[in-house]
Amino acid sequence: MFKGLYTVASGMIAQQRHQEALSNNIANANTPGYKADQTTFRAFSEMLMNEINTKHPIKYGANIPTKRPIGGLFTGVYAQEFVTDFSEGALRETGMDTDLALVQQEIPDDAGGFFFAVQNEAGEVRLTRNGNFTVDGDGFLVTSEGYYVLGEDGNPTFTNGLDFSVTDEGLLQTADQSTLLDIRYVENVHDLEKEGNGLLNGESNPIPNEATFHVKQGFLERSNVDSLQAMTQMMEAYRAFETNQRVLKAYDESMGKAVNDIGRIG
């Protein structure tokens, strides 16, 4: 019975983590460039149950203890990890010159991807697909959280205002100068780690000759979250949690009877 309690409890914890991931996806359904997280489940190791202390009689009245296999016992499930879906979201035209979208035209491997390079508050380089940029009071191109958008020279991109244009190759041009935006290529996007605020941490690679992209000014990449599907999955997770909860209650009632009724003497 106690093994059943552990199995049910592990199922409830797994569904809770799954629901947390779905809630985060739904909350970011309108965040430009957001990539949805998917939960992967895994079962704990199966245990082989045996009946012990079975006596096998032999000559002279002696008995040999034996074990008779009863069958397997699954010990529950757990949410192993969150896997990010890096597929491209649809484009939305905004008409804002500060909004930029990365469109991946050719990728030699399905696991590769292009990203904008930005500088976080600690001065470290991070990657993002969220091109919802703006210009700060000092004339630098920044993210909506205030992180500097980097140029290919590794310095913050200076625009000196809103009057600028960006070519398909990522060349930002003003009346006085031009700066090539730092567009990074990641060979395996699944090696990236989310850090919040749309930032990703990981190593970038040289852009292969066969990999191409273009930058669209006045557009934003939508989140790739399917809100309807996420809501359906959330309802399924909630029902699975409820089912485990009812089983747990049944176990609790059975244990109560075993303690209060069966164990009563006289």
What would you say this structure looks like, in words?
The protein is of the alpha+beta class and 266 residues long. The chain folds into two domains: 2-83 and 226-262, no CATH class; 91-221, no CATH class. It has helices spanning 2-27, 227-262; strands spanning 37-43, 47-57, 63-73, 77-84, 91-93, 100-106, 113-119, 125-128, 134-135, 141-142, 148-149, 165-166, 171-173, 178-180, 183-186, 193-196, 199-201, 212-217, 219-221. The mean pLDDT is 86.
List the defining traits of the structure above.
single chain, about 270 residues, alpha+beta, 4-stranded antiparallel sheet, 3-stranded antiparallel sheet, elongated, LlgE_F_G-like_D1, cell projection, flagellum, cilium, Flagellar hook-basal body protein
List the helices and strands and how they pair.
Layout: H1 2-27, E1 37-43, E2 47-57, E3 63-73, E4 77-84, E5 91-93, E6 100-106, E7 113-119, E8 125-128, E9 134-135, E10 141-142, E11 148-149, E12 165-166, E13 171-173, E14 178-180, E15 183-186, E16 193-196, E17 199-201, E18 212-217, E19 219-221, H2 227-262
Helix pairs in contact: 1-2
Pfam families: Flg_bb_rod (PF00460), Flg_bbr_C (PF06429), LlgE_F_G_D1 (PF22692)
Subcellular location: Bacterial flagellum basal body
Protein name: Flagellar hook-basal body protein
What's the quick description here?
The chain has 266 residues and is α+β, with helices and mostly antiparallel strands. It is 23% helix and 35% strand. It has two helices and 19 strands.
